[in-house]
Amino acid sequence: xxxxxxxxxxxxxxxxxxxxxxxxxxxxxxxxxxxxxxxxxxxxxxxxxxxxxxxxxxxxxxxxxxxxxxxxxxxxxxxxxxxxxxxxxxxxxxxxxxxxxxxxxxxxxxxxxxxxxxxxxxxxxxxxxxxxxxxxxxxxxxxxxxxxxxxxxxxxxxxxxxxxxxxxxxxxxxxxxxxxxxxxxxxxxxxxxxxxxxxxxxxxxxxxxxxxxxxxxxxxxxxxxxxxxxxxxxxxxxxxxxxxxxxxxxxxxxxxxxxxxxxxxxxxxxxxxxxxxxxxxxxxxxxxxxxxxxxxxxxxxxxxxxxxxxxxxxxxxxxxxxxxxxxxxxxxxxxxxxxxxxxxxxxxxxxxxxxxxxxxxxxxxxxxxxxxxxxxxxxxxxxxxxxxxxxxxxxxxxxxxx
Length: 402
Hints:
Oligomer: single chain
Structural class: alpha/beta
CATH topology of the largest domain: Rossmann fold
Largest sheet: 9 strands, mixed
Helix content: 40-55%
Shape: globular
């Protein structure tokens, strides 16, 4: 009996060793990192979501090979349909609880990002904002960083620049939601601090605006310049056409604003109305930087030579660069607090827009702000940079410390 038991024990031991050897010889199971991407894919503003998503897809295609061998990436896309905080919040909840995502990302609209941010604090989910520009969003949760911009970042230095050009009387007209309010306040502060006077301010509806009556009021006031903010895309084209048709430029009124009003991908649709318009922003297709040349070569290879990326495309590209940095640093094993420590302070000297970094104190981006003028070369319009304010932090947070 003892011999039989000994032989059985020996066979069991060999079987266990064999199973262990088999397990050790198998490749390690892939770690899937899930990113919930919330963007506007339908409705009149679908082009904005598409621009960001194309930047995301391109970055993944170009850099997925850099992920650790055992790590795979799963991007789960959701359509918020436009500026709809309730929809955005519901989608974020579903991505967190059902899809078990380890990152949230994207978001075109500030009201949507504002609705999502508190959820990230409760669930400890890193949230990488790729557009929404309301200054306060990053203060709503310690798990939020932004790779785009704030309206204060562009509009405050633009106000200072405009007053220094001898333009003393200004009017402002902005879309009536948080980024518009930020842009209005920032431009007014910069302009008046530099000696300018504000003749009046208008706020326009976010949905289906008719710009003509607002611009007519501005024309009647006879300012030296008009500062405008609208949320890019088709609205920017409609605004620019109304500006031209009502003859504000012919009346001697100069138009200035953030980069949203002369987005590169919409310039071909605007005719000659934007010629001479001055904007402040972080990216222009025509910028002469080696990193931008490489980005454009990849973009045109994948999306065609006639496709034009916008600043939102670059914001999506850089947002994925930040997420990739965290995934690689953690070898795919995402710990929310470690991830935020990586993201806050992340630097990228090779962005198509120039060197960028995340301010560890605020979660907001630090970047160059370029002063650009719309000019025509051949038969094409472009936002040509002629001045720069280097490495700008969000001025609102500097002026309003937490």
